[in-house]
Design a protein that fits this description.
Layout: H1 5-13, E1 22-24, E2 32-33, E3 40-49, H2 60-78, E4 81-91, H3 96-113, E5 116-124, E6 128-137, E7 153-157, H4 162-172, H5 179-190, H6 196-202, E8 208-211, H7 216-227, E9 230-234, H8 242-247, H9 250-259, E10 266-270, E11 284-291, E12 295-300, E13 303-304
Parallel strand pairs: 4-5, 9-12
Antiparallel strand pairs: 1-2, 3-6, 4-6, 7-10, 7-11, 8-10, 9-11, 12-13
Adenosine-5'-diphosphate (ADP) is lined by residues 9, 13, 26-29, 87, 89, 117, 119-122.
Amino acid sequence: MSLGEFDIIAKYFAGHAHGDEVLLGVGDDAAVLGVRADRRLVLAMDTIVEGVHFLPDADAADVGYRALAVNLSDLAAMGAVPSWMSLSLSLPRADERWLNGFAAGLFEVAGRYDVQLIGGDTVKGPLVITIQVGGWVEPDRWLTRSGAREGDAIFVSGTLGDAAAGLALLTVGQRPMQEAPFEFLRNRFLRPEPRIALGRALRSVATAAMDISDGLLTDLGKLCEASRCGAVLEVEAVPTSQPLQATFDVDRRLQYSLCGGDDYELLFTAPASAISALKAGAALTKIGVITSGRGVECRRSGQPFTPRQAGYDHFAH
Ligand code: ADP
Ligand code: MG
């Protein structure tokens, strides 16, 4: 328990960087990176706060995993290859058990995506984790939210609503009948999978892209706003997982898949014909079309549909 700041850094966070581009890593006043002239640097940062973005009793490995995964999701949405991260940790105490778990989760993701920890900051305070990730993309090939055009098809990867359902189950301690769906939904919240390979594949196909962190309707609204266009969304086309279908009725599924956040799937637009060229490694579903209007219009069985407002039940917003 009596580890000092420098012991924590030395024991858990130093010596992980390798590879040609990190000229100087953890341990000096700053890191030094080699930067290639034929690439563009892409940066993103996300902060997660105990009690706001993760539950106070959350497993430390899950916290470490999620802290990096949500950052990598932003790079995925840009079509970038992740490469480095820096880590700012505010800790209430030097809890070695927590640090061990956190580092295990963090470096599990870092190893999978070959992300080097190049530096950071360690302070005493409420439990807050900030990660900045850096990566690269070819010149003029990054994805943005602003390129959608009338007539483009709207796609999502994977399934939606799982993470919100998983969070609801975690929050209220309510368990569905079967163990397996509960496990799946819970993990979709705790350990999101950044869609890096899909983001890379979209560089030559998508007109606009973003990751879904705040819920499909909210995030599609942001994409439309940035692209100065509207969207018609076929709510019954929105893909949901088998475990979600097995656990919740259709109304609740719609609510989770349209309004629930934290899935970290990619939302993107593309000419409908272009999509067959994609070998993405993730299931892709067409859910609507971009229009010349403004805002997101939902349809269910061909009729206008107004989703129930999220927020009055198990959503932890
Ligand atoms: P300074 O006093 O120069 O700001 P620090 O004492 O904060 O430096 O940090 C010493 C070194 O350890 C720096 O290289 C810094 O990047 C690194 N570092 C500090 N905290 C972390 C952390 N949580 N993860 C990775 N590297 C860290
Ligand atoms: Mg210094």
